[in-house]
Write a structure and sequence with these properties.
15 strands; 3-stranded antiparallel sheet; 467 residues; Uridine Diphospho-n-acetylenolpyruvylglucosamine Reductase, domain 2; alpha+beta; metal-binding; 17 helices; iron; Cytochrome_P450_monoxygenase; 51% helix; 5-stranded mixed sheet; Cyt_P450_E_grp-I; Cyt_P450_CS
């Protein structure tokens, strides 16, 4: 890769280039830009974009990374030239835990699994899952009611993790997962997520035999045993069921052949647990935090939920019939995209935004920067859900689920799940975060607030509806 420090500067559009390779912050010797990224990644990335344009170079340790925060260039990487890229190194490091699920698989394995699984995620297939999500939300509503009566505050992030985990488990397994199984998942999944986050963020991948590694392996064994047990029981019973696992068990190719093996099912289930759990939880956490900062807007959303949902358990159609709540969810995804970057690695020579990239070049499509671009979004840092009800939005600069053939397969499910959980909570309760809550962000595998989101709970109406 060319050495940018020794070449001639030219400006092409919004990209400052040196000998065809974008300019960027110089960094610190062999560490590159790691010290600044460790200190405050998002602030450093925003400063770099302001200084060098929408496509710039970073040094991640010894490796150069092309950062892309411009819609047309992002579509080159994710859509029109997607065949010239594979998943980035960070995602490759997840294979120990996820196996060859949709998030990590490449080539024919990915294409085959995607074709088999796609029908299970069509909107028509999701209709029956709304009831499971609403049922999985009931323990959360009970805890919020108890908090409203006692005056005890709640940790919003923790509560959203619990409800999102229960919701994705219900959608995956239906009634096959009992309370004891859920406790296993709640106990064993977090350490795996933590270790995965640490590994993805590290520029090296040393797998030393430490207590944390032993804990990680024990957690993986426990989850594997649970998932394989449920798959065996479902196959033995012959009852495929209407949950996602049942749909995946019955999936066949166009000629009616094939289907996923038990090992492939395990990998996809683990991927769905990861993709459908923490991302939805962080979306809901940021949503309630933003609404707490805008009480007048929150009251309008609550009125909408009470009017449209009444005292019924919401359906998939109800989730699509909450326009103001839907706009708040979209605006939350814009400001705080859980999957805030999409890493890719060039599999051969390719050009992006006019920049020639040799094979092996690491590219980071930065969704956070893309969603905060002032050229695409008026008042880019403001929480303005009204932009989704009018004509101000810029769809080509909005990619919370990625883009192209590898767009998140569960995007419709995630939006329905968030709308049902948030709608049920807002119909009955007000979550008030004193002082506005944390204002900083932590950019790990997902985007999170930089401190606890602690809320006081009160009833949204004199007589909360119990189902």
């Amino acid at each position: 890769m060319p050495s940018p420090e020794k070449t001639t500067v030219s400006t092409v559009g919004q990209v400052t280039q040196l000998n065809g390779w974008p300019d960027g912050p110089r960094g610190h010797g062999p560490l590159g830009n790691l010290p600044e990224l460790r200190r405050d990644a998002l602030a450093f990335l925003r400063h770099s974009r302001a200084a060098y344009g929408d496509v710039f170079r970073l040094r991640f340790g010894p490796r150069d990374v092309l950062v892309v925060a411009e819609p047309a260039a992002a579509r080159e990487v994710l859509v029109t030239k997607a065949g010239s890229f594979r998943k980035g190194r960070g995602i490759q490091k997840m294979e120990d835990f996820l196996g060859s699920g949709l998030l990590t698989a490449e080539g024919e394995v990915w294409r085959g699994h995607r074709r088999l699984m796609q029908p299970a995620f069509h909107r028509s297939a999701l209709e029956g899952m709304a009831e499971e999500i609403a049922r999985a939300t009931q323990p959360l509503l009970a805890r919020l009611e108890a908090a409203a009566r006692s005056g005890e505050p709640v940790d919003v992030a923790s509560e959203m993790l619990r409800v999102a985990l229960r919701a994705v488990a219900a959608v995956l397994f239906g009634a096959a997962l009992d309370e004891r199984d859920l406790r296993v998942v709640e106990r064993e999944l977090p350490p795996l997520l933590t270790s995965t986050t640490n590994r993805v963020r590290s520029p090296v991948d040393w797998r030393l035999p430490t207590p944390s590694l032993w804990r990680e392996k024990a957690a993986a064994r426990a989850l594997d045993a649970l998932v394989h047990r449920i798959i065996r029981e479902r196959r033995a019973s012959g009852a495929e069921g209407n949950d996602l696992l049942g749909m995946l068990l019955s999936a066949r190719d166009e000629e009616g052949r094939g289907g996923l093996t038990d090992h492939e099912l395990r990998d996809e289930v683990m991927t769905l647990f990861l993709a459908g759990h923490e991302t939805t939880a962080t979306l809901l956490t940021f949503l309630f935090l933003a609404l707490s900062r805008h009480p007048e807007l929150r009251e309008r959303v609550q009125a909408e939920a009470r009017e449209r949902l009444g005292d019924r358990s919401p359906t998939a159609a109800d989730a699509r019939n909450l326009p103001l709540l839907g706009a708040c969810i979209q605006e939350t995804l814009r400001l705080y995209p859980p999957a805030w970057l999409v890493p890719r690695q060039a599999t051969g020579p390719v050009t992006v935004a006019g920049v020639p990239l040799p094979e092996g070049t690491n590219v980071s499509v930065n969704i956070f920067l893309l969603h905060r671009g002032a050229r695409y979004w008026p008042e880019p840092d403001a929480f303005r859900p009204g932009r989704w009800l009018g004509r101000e939005r810029t769809p080509e600069a909005f990619m919370p689920f990625g883009a192209g053939a590898r767009m998140c397969i569960g995007n419709h499910l995630a939006l329905m799940e968030a709308a049902i959980i948030a709608g049920l909570v807002l119909r009955e309760f007000t979550l008030e975060v004193p002082g506005g809550g944390p204002t900083g962000l932590v950019a790990g595998v997902t985007l999170k607030p930089d401190g606890p989101v602690v809320a006081k709970v009160r009833s949204a109406s004199p007589s909360p509806v119990r189902e």
